[in-house]
Amino acid sequence: MATALLAPLSIPSLVVTDTPTIEQMRVWWEAMRRDDLSVAYADAFPETLTDFRLEIAQGTKKLLICLVNGHVAGALWLHDMAHRSDRTVLAGWVGGFFLPAYRGSLAARLWQAARQRWEAQRITHLFAATHIANRRSQAFLARGMGFHRVGIYPCFTLFHGQTTDVVIYCANPNDAPLAWTYAHKRALRPLQPVTHERNLAIREGEQS
């Protein structure tokens, strides 16, 4: 009887880099633009890769390109960052995109690598906001990234020219009050310190 020898399963090499090549950035950008982005990014998101790179150069975004066995798997970035008095980054809002072939467990592991990188840089407060209809991102934030749902912020920003509600998340559950504070600063129509809508949003977040 012939015996088949199974090769050992190889462990993929996962890398996040803040010094990607322009070609790596282009692979990510073009894959992202081919995807359905109808509820992915608000109207203020850069229109072109050149615009995105300019924001990185100006320090308004921090980008990590994610690689699996040397191949571009996606990107994660920070935006709307808050700084300490010494100009180091204290907090930021997470954005991201993973190519379809790398979604799931690989994307979750790449996120953990990115989070470790940022936390090593003393970026201690991480938040996210996603379109209320973007169920895929909400599922990945909760299950893949381990973020905690804070609640719904009404009329937060513009999508396709329309004011839109978003769901607010934080990486650390203790940061929920801080998430509201930073969301208030970002919002297109900032809520008053206490409103009926905000109370509903907080209760909805606590129940989810």
Order of helices and strands: EHHEEEHEHEEHH
Number of domains: 1
What's the architecture, going by CATH? Answer: 3-Layer(aba) Sandwich
**Largest β sheet strand count, sense and barrel closure:** 7 strands, mixed
* C-alpha-based Rg, rounded: 19 Å
Number of continuous helical runs: 6
Structural class comes to alpha+beta
CATH class term: Alpha Beta
How large a portion of the residues is in β-strands, by DSSP E?
A: 25-35%
Shape: globular
User: What is the third-level CATH name, the topology?
Assistant: Aminopeptidase
Helicity, as a percent range: 25-40%
Number of strands: 7
Q: What is the oligomer described by this structure?
A: single chain
Explain what this protein looks like in three dimensions.
By secondary structure, the chain is an alpha+beta fold. It has one domain (14-207): Aminopeptidase. The chain contains six helices and seven strands. The chain has a seven-stranded mixed sheet, with helices on both faces.
Please tag this protein with its features:
208 residues; alpha+beta; Aminopeptidase; seven-stranded mixed β-sheet; 30% strand; globular; disordered N terminus
Question: What secondary-structure arrangement, pairings included, does this model have?
Answer:
Elements: E1 14-17, H1 22-34, H2 49-57, E2 61-68, E3 71-83, E4 89-98, H3 105-120, E5 125-131, H4 135-144, E6 148-159, E7 162-170, H5 176-186, H6 196-207
Parallel strand pairs: 4-5
Antiparallel strand pairs: 1-2, 2-3, 3-4, 5-7, 6-7
